[in-house]
Write a structure and sequence with these properties.
The chain is of the alpha/beta class. Helices cover about 25% and strands about 20% of the residues. The strands form four sheets. The protein has an eight-stranded mixed beta sheet with strand order 2-1-3-5-6-7-10-11, sandwiched between helices. Helix 7 links the parallel strand 15 and strand 16. The longest helix has 14 residues. It binds aspartic acid.
Length: about 350
């Protein structure tokens, strides 16, 4: 069997950053830095890899939906030349980009693994080499047909992931889904967790459109007038982060009326929980009232998956009611339907 070929797409982030007087900044010298530290491509059990720098090397805190689309286009451009891809990305918004690409890359038959590091490759205690060699080996030996994220020894589903620590090397988690694999002395895979290989569907990038999607986290003290200003048009989609299992101040005069009105005007409002673990349910009367206002329950979607799914559905030409119906339906493993809790 020939040695797999992996495309290493470099989008920026701490992994390839260098010191500057203002702090760490992205740098174009990653090829040389990797050549000094990694074995020759195709030797020592590693696949062949080729570094491809994206046009906009950024701190991922600068990422915009246009960057998701550009990255999806880069994967598509090089799709036939490689057996899989690693995306070197900043950790701050990695979960958003991984979620966005899980929706954008339709009919994906090759692994796309996001990784990065908490300490730059140029620093003595960097975690970068471990992440990169782990991701390269996984892409070559466990070519799962989906968008994933590899960090601190765990291979996770991209659209289930969220950044949980800024000061810990173990920076990501998938609170509602087990890891697809754990890399210790051996690679342990979770049986039956990966997405199935697509059938007849051809590989293509989903259409993108400019949509106004916003996020609002409820807090005690949010009043109707501030809510009204926040919901001012244009607003195509809103992710509403509610308390607990999906609750909010529904008895405040005017609060629910406003949400009902905005939904009726075509804004798709998705209810996700502020809690890291747990799903939206109709256990409380306050939660049920949202549903009556047209707010759709986002089950166990992460914030990142809810935002990017809304962008994706808004670009797909569906009307608001059709989008509401699609929110609780898993497109690529991003949520667990009510009858199938994980
Ligand atoms: N601010 C950096 C980024 O997201 C953090 C990192 O990469 O860890 O690009």
């Amino acid at each position: 069997m020939s040695t797999p070929r992996i495309g290493l797409l470099y989008a920026g982030g701490t992994l390839g950053m260098v010191r500057s007087p203002a702090g760490y900044v992205p740098d174009r010298g990653l090829q040389q830095a990797l050549a000094r530290r990694l074995p020759e491509p195709g030797t020592d059990g590693l696949p062949h890899w080729t570094l491809i720098e994206t046009e906009r090397l950024i701190d991922s805190a600068e990422a915009q939906p246009g960057d998701w689309q550009a990255l999806a286009a880069t994967v598509a451009k090089h799709y036939d030349a490689f057996d899989g891809f690693i995306v070197i990305h900043g950790t701050d918004t990695m979960a958003y980009t991984a979620s966005a690409l899980s929706f954008a890359l339709r009919g994906l038959r090759k692994p796309v693994i996001f990784t990065g590091s908490q300490i730059p490759l140029c620093e003595p205690r960097s975690d970068a080499l471990n992440q990169l060699t782990g991701a390269l080996q996984l892409a070559a030996t466990h070519p799962l047909p989906e968008v994933m994220l590899f960090f601190a020894g765990r291979l996770m589903r991209g659209n289930r992931s969220t950044k949980v620590a800024s000061d810990d090397l173990d920076a990501f988690d998938t609170p509602h889904f087990p890891p697809l694999a754990r890399v210790g002395i051996q690679v342990e895979t979770g049986p039956g967790l990966a997405l199935p290989m697509p059938g007849a569907e051809a590989f293509e990038i989903a259409p993108a459109a400019h949509a106004e999607v916003a996020v609002l986290r409820l807090w005690p003290g949010l009043g109707v007038e501030r809510l009204r200003r926040f919901l001012a048009p244009p607003l195509h989609g809103l992710v509403l982060q509610t308390y607990g299992a999906g609750n909010g101040p529904v008895s405040m005069p005017g609060f629910l009326d406003l949400l009902t009105q905005v939904s009726a005007q075509g804004t798709v409002i998705v209810n996700v929980s502020q809690c890291l673990r747990g799903r939206i349910s109709a256990a409380y009367a306050t939660g049920t009232a949202w549903a009556q206002a047209g707010v759709v329950g986002g089950l166990d979607l992460t914030l990142e998956a809810a935002v990017t799914k809304l962008h994706h559905l808004l670009a797909s030409g569906l009307d608001p009611e059709q989008i509401r119906q699609q929110i609780p339906r898993p497109w690529c493993g991003e949520c667990s339907p009510a009858a199938d809790p994980v």
